[in-house]
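Box 3.1 A note on notation
Throughout this textbook, protein chains are presented in two layers. The first layer is the amino acid sequence; the second is a token string describing backbone geometry. Keep the layers aligned when reading.
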Amino acid sequence: MVHCLPDNEYSGLAKLPVPFVYVNGTKSNQATTNGELPEIGIRVSGKTLYRDTLRFFTTHNATPDAVYDLGWRMLDKIYPQVRS
């Protein structure tokens, strides 16, 4: 929990890797990340991971941006119904 990011900082795979180390919810400007997974040295790309995960769990070839936009359109459509 020491190095977890606060909820208001980053959310979602596309924002990974984060550029700084966080300590107890505070960004440390003294410690930057290198964007690689420890010990195996694989470069992290949240956008690539999200795109590949999307392909695995869906049956169409929508882009991550198209899915994001669809989500907001559906939220705009459904949320007023939930509130009433």
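Residues 64-83 form the longest helix (20 residues). The chain has a mean pLDDT of 83.
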